Task: structure prediction
Amino acid sequence: MAAAGGAVAVARGARPAQQTGPALAQAGAPVPQVQVVEAPPEESRAVAAEATKHPILPEKNQRQKTEDGTKMAIFFDSWVTEMLAVLSTVFAVLYVTFKINYTYWKKKGLPYLEPSFPLGNGWNTALMRKCPGEDMKDVYFATEGKDVVGIYSLNNPLLVVRDPELIKTIIVRDFNYFPDRGIYVDEETDHLMAHLFFLGGTKWKALRQKLTPTFTPGKMRAMFGIVLECARVLADVTPAGSVVEVRELIARYSTDVIASCAFGIDVDSQHNPEAEFRQWGRRFFKPSVRSYLTQALGFSNPKLRNLLPIPFTPKDITEYFTRVVDDTVKHREKTGVIRKDFIQLMVQLKNIGYVDDSFSITGQQSTEQTSNRLTTKEVAAQAWVFFIAGFETSSTTVSFCLYELARHPDIQKKVQEEIDDVLKKNNGDVTFDIIMTQMPYLEKVVNETLRMYPPVPVLNREVAEDYKLPGYDCVLEQGTKVLIPVMGLHYDRKFFRNPEKFDPEHFSEEQKASRHSYCYLPFGEGPRICIGMRFGLTQVKVALVHLLSKFDFLPVGDKQSKSSQQWSPPAASSGPRQQPAAVPRLQPSSPAVVLARSSPHQHRPPPAASGQQRSPPAVTSGCSHQRLQPTAVAATSGRSHQPAA
Result:
């Protein structure tokens, strides 16, 4: 409001215009005088209330948005700058932490390979340039002359043990310090992981005691007829004079063996490659980013794996195989069927808490035996590890063996002659004892295959309590991981004269006596040796006997294989069969040419079973496969006998 005489009245709380006297003077206007007058009380309160609603903030707090309307960050003008600052800080903290951890083995006074941030020494494996076995083999040869060497997976210290005597100490003599594999196990989210290979501590010990009687030689003889029947089908479905993808052929054979023995079902994937059971198994073994991450972290860094709540086995696969086991168990319990296979022994453990030679699921129980009984989920977990361990290792070993025999026709001929002689002596019969004891050259061939292509190329252990490393002024703390480079040992010239060459004579008695017994570890050693080793070797040898007794195998690309359609097998008395020419090294998954052989012996027909017949299979509810009934096997002195195909 204007006052008389050019005076301006300013109410309390109002803000006058910011104009100076000189500026007004230059404009030619008289400089007004400002007079402060007291405003009425009601007006003052109204102005104060309005000021409270719209406070005048300092200039630095008024900049809530940039000119284009983008919201400002907390500490910087841009959220991008702020994010970069946060990431830089996190990176710096991680870098310093990893660098400090990378001094672990240096402080321990042990030799080590220099790591690099952030993957340590695991770059080749992490980037999938090499498999873990090949990577550890490189570590083994990069540290020649050292008994142990330290490496790092991310920032996790691992000790690689190279010396066979120290390996023996760790996995046998001082086993109590190294009882576990140190693998991530989450039974709540994935009950199929609660099996013998993954478990540790008291759970592993109790389960090992329960399952050990299921793999005795007597049990293997009882199951032998099932393996033999699958091998006969293998020989029948193998096309002579054709190019065959051996890996797929043997995978279907292994699937049938495992499905029959471990799950009690007849999937017949050898005649039907797209059988449901085979498809589910193929899916599990198919490489994927998910499986790579879960397995890599589960083995190398279980603590980091705990942060990823992803089950090791996909949920739908878990549900399918659990349902198959549950159906089989219920079928056996309901019908009282006794079939001499692995799942029958698991049903015994579930119902009566112990295993015996009767295979019966009924019997007297003590209090202790009642507490030893397995649950259905535990039965499913043991059947599952039977599948993943028995399928992959056996099919891979047979495939590699045939691959090497195709490349070395002289060795193939020699093992065929041994098989022919043994079958002739036994009138075509193949028994468990014949396979395991009367074919020494076949034994050498299989051992040499396992040396060059070990199914488990790296063994791992975890320190259970602080351990003084023999020969070193060093204590390994609880939780430290220990690796044994099996593939490196198998290719060391100190132990094998020509490790790059496929030579069964590496396992002659003379050469075996000249080297340390713990430089050959295809199945591990000590209390945690593979419990199914005997069954796996039986499965491999039976397949090789049936195939090599009927077929010659040639690598694709060989001169003779190109004219295989015109090739005819020689008569039994016409002398040695023609040998294929040497060819360049092929990939192990390459197809092979299969040529029919003339049989130097006559197989007698299958003997009639005494008082036992095969019952018609019952269809399983919910699964497209057949439930197996007792197999008709002729028994002599407690052993199963069947003629070779």
Notes: The CA atoms of residues 415 and 442 lie 6 Å apart.
